Amino acid sequence: MRKEQFICPYTVYDNPDELESQDAELLRWAHEATARSYAPYSKFHVGAAARMANGEIVTGNNIENAAYPSGLCAERVTLFAAQAKFPGVPIEALAVVAHSETKTIDEPVAPCGACRQVMVEVERLSKRPMRILCQGETGAIMAFDGIESLMPFIFKDTFL
Description:
The structure is a single chain. This protein has helices at residues 21-33, 74-85, 113-126, 147-150; strands at residues 11-13, 44-52, 57-61, 91-100, 131-135, 141-145. The chain contains 4 helices and 6 strands; from the N terminus they run βαββαβαββα. The radius of gyration is 16 Å and the shape is globular.
């Protein structure tokens, strides 16, 4: 028997001014997308924005439903829309942000497990890692260089 450890490498930016301009712009698009969120139950609004290899930006937001698992997260809305609108075009980066109607979220909000698994498939299709930026309503930004930095021990298509 042996004990092993997984290390999760990421970069923390204290504010958007520290980001490269294209990442700061992507984060701005994600924040704007929260305004279109439909979250009457949780009051938790999430916006996401994807930067495509062709320079296009695709946004999405969470959509809730009274029959709880029928809604969909902003990340998956964005990734599916990007793939539908630009099939075969790699997604270079994804920004995810959130705000709540009940409290200020001043720390980065990371994607749920289902969204992370979809990111695995997006990277497989793109044949390259996707930069992932996470922020709350305010505060620091966490940047990951690929889904394997955010989700260890991914389920891969090679298992099938």
